[in-house]
Design goal:
With 530 residues, this protein is of the alpha/beta class. Helix 4 (111-121) packs across helix 5 (133-140) and helix 7 (206-216) crosses helix 8 (236-249). The chain is globular, with a radius of gyration of 23 Å. The N and C termini lie far apart (59 Å).
Amino acid sequence: MRDHSVAVDETATPRGIEFAGTFNVSVAVLDRHLETGRGDKPALVTHGASWSYAAIAERVNRAANAFRELGIGPGDRVMLFCKDGPGFYDGFLGAARIGAVAIPVNYFLRAADYAYMLKDSGASAVIAHADMFAEIEPALAEAGAAVRHRICVDAEAPGWLSHEALLAAADPWCPPAPTTPRSDCFWLYSSGSTGDPKASVHQHKDQVYTSVLYAEAVAGISAEDVLFSPPKMFFAYGLGNSVSFPLWTGATAVYLEGRPTAENTLEAIAAFRPSVYFGVPTLYAMQLAAIEAGHAADLSSLRWAASGGEPLPESVFEEWKQRSGVEIVESIGSSEALHFYTANPPGGVRAGSLGTLVPGYDGRIVGEEGRDLPDGEPGELVIRGESVATYYWNKPERTARGMRDGWFHTGDTCYRDTDGYYYFCGRDDDMLKVGGIWVAPFEVESALAAHPGVLEAAVVGAEDENGLVKPKAFVALKQPGGAGPALESELVGFVRDRLAPFKYPRWIEFVDELPKTASGKIQRFRLRGT
């Protein structure tokens, strides 16, 4: 095979993927399109701006050469505090091009979080937008940070190199480093829903596996599609949707630089008319509430809508289908696996389920001692597949506990039905035992979300006057002014009419919003004890 090439057997299930011995992912997602005449096609678009495949490729090559001129080399870590846009592509793929390791991080965090990541990773360079300096610079000043180069994406700043100036001075062609499919390529820090930061180490092959096995084989994404993903590029879900999938297939990606809202995402759908839309349950619920309140929406361009990050309430699924004519394809994935490893198959969507395994991944439901459980019995979901991270950086104990005998232990409690569909019950540490019987928080949350006044809900365990654990619900309303004892009593009765008697929430606390990770996962640990 030619260096950096990939051969895909599209007739096989799962699709067969073969890599050249020398393989750099930047060639597969950029150079390949230039060779096939796709250079002038828009790769990345936003309001008032567009970049072709040729333009993105040139920027990435210039960024790679600029990194080399600074002395950044194979294995060096480059931390990206980059908003969605061409600057993210430059840093992420420019680092890959020279065999360095990109580390995109959540830019909504605080200095203490960044100080930990900088020390833990030993990053030698950071790339950031100027409006993030207030949190980044205190982290850079802490002892133990090894950063040698500071690059500002969008401004001239004292003590920082200008990204655009570096690009302008660099050569527009950079030979790709002779990495292999299994060379380390990027890390993803994830606090998930537990608040324990850890970096999943991914290889050059991993983005190709998620793109071929899910984006092409399941979602049917091709060069004709326009993809829109409000979830940000710095975490696994957004990275796949806005970087891996469009650049592998030759599609066009739409992005929003700022925080997504119901209004600006509906306006983007109407303006750019994407065919594929990736959301999270909270955003879908907010969009539906905005439409119900009279906000204009045109969803007619959509042929595929996906949801990840947190289970999707059936009420949201049904209302979205009624409004758009498109079923939301619910799935589950993780930073460790890079994207979805289950998905509802086209034509076989079952509301409330996570779908079946994406062909190319294996899954099991296991009990506490690691034995396989029968269909219908909840246990931990463990999976394996070629996109799964090889280890957690600098955390051998977490690696040994979570990645055993080739299987990744997800920490998600699920069950599988006799047709092979998976159903989410909750994170292992979120499950409640009420009166000796396990209760899945998501089941109670879904019942609450079916109430017309509820935007979203989270359920945790709380002790009653006898020290016994009972469900407690935190509820965000579509119209916050309606909160009060009368609505609390109504919601309790609403749930009792739908679920087994012991599952109803004993207490309801109304909140403006629920704490979440950047990927939309509810951080229930922040609600416990409140």
